[in-house]
What does this fold into?
Amino acid sequence: MKNLDILFLNPGDQVKTFQGLAKKHTPLSTPSWCMLLASSLRKYAEVAIYDANIQGWDAKKLLEDYSPKLVVIMVHGHNPTGSTENMPAALQSVNDLKKINKDVKIAVGGGHVSALPKRTLEECEADYTIQGEGLYTIKGLNDYLNGKLGLKDIPGLWYRSNGEIVKTFPAENVKDLDNDMGDYAFDLLPGVENYRSSEVHCLQNFQDSKMADQGFIDVRSPYVAIYTTLGCPYQCHFCMTNGIFGGQGSRGWSADSVLKWIDELYLKYNVKNIRLDDELFVLDNSRVNEICDRLIERNYDLNIYGYTALNSTRTKLLEKMYKAGFTWLSVGVEAGSEYVRKTQKGKFPIKSDIHATVKAIQDTGINVHANYMFGFQDDTIETMQQTLDLALDLNTEFVQMRYVNALPGAPMYDDFTDEQLPKDWNAYSQYSYEAQPLDTKYISGKDVLRFRDHAFQTYFSSEKYLNLVKSKFGEKCYNHMLIQPKVPLKRKLLEESKVA
It folds into this structure.
């Protein structure tokens, strides 16, 4: 497609971010924000989406094939660190494109960029950075490049002028999501069959797979990730979710819009594996009830993964969600130490309620993906062990074990000086070689990383967990879980400690 107005680029370097996990284990997720923005702006401009994770990266060929007036690089992710951990690939993409054609106009946006718009411009050769959701800023840039608007009249824009970096006025968030940003451009993707879910999303289907040696790709694809709400009503101190929206709060698309997307995915693209990337899908119970009722009427064979807070679950609603096709709910347990839980800023569930809530979810037939974090500022080796002990006791169908990051856009980021924070954005990736947790008040970042990796190995090697997997998901999944903890993760920080 030659002489394109806007090319949306989803950057990525899976191997750099995930090391040996990238080949088979990690997801290849659809670029939700590229799809939303492209769909909304196609009424004003010729648009396309290029996904480097699927289509590979060749800057010269990309410019030859598309000849875009404007390249918009949206740096988002499908986990809390996703935007920042994708920044190295985004910055490299900018510089590669400028090396081929210094005149091509490039704008960079996303959660990380919204938090650090000036610094992002200082770190690369992009012409513009976008602060905020991006819809009105990108539309304004398109008008500017067509001679209809001045740069200073574009909301949410940072750019260079007379050797200085300047900004315009803040962009408003999209108020009417259904009308102003109401569709996903599924048709502009390089084929939904090229995307794959995370392993956890499809563990229950591994026994039916005929491609176990290829990462169970036949049951993990096709796959699509979408939002049905934006933002979060809570503000955990360590979370950057609300940074791009300018503060806490949640807005959602109507049930009509959500059902329209799912109809299209299921009937047109044969997509059953759907991940709802909402920070908390189970929030507005009346809306969730309506969506589930209408999905039950359709009787689709869906495999839906979503997120909920432990204090948001209700048994009748959970039963309805299961009937509608929800097979996994991700919950934030976070910490096992009562002291650590009480000293953190943000909304933590009451520890005494965790067991009952997890059991209530499981009793409906929905699997639980529990999330734990190591390295809160009040953590010690002993308190982190309490977190691991809680995880082993709960023995949920899957866990995510992460170390605490001070992410750009999170309130916690402002608690630290530049000298205390990692110097390399690669260091914010949980699975990268450069991974670098912060020191807590009592132990070093090296201790945190070492314990996090130990906790991961301990959980997935525990006899109790492996027996659960075998009884619930079958022999193929059990055999896979015997292998997964053995995928090596090299850690520069721990290598340095051995040398020291």
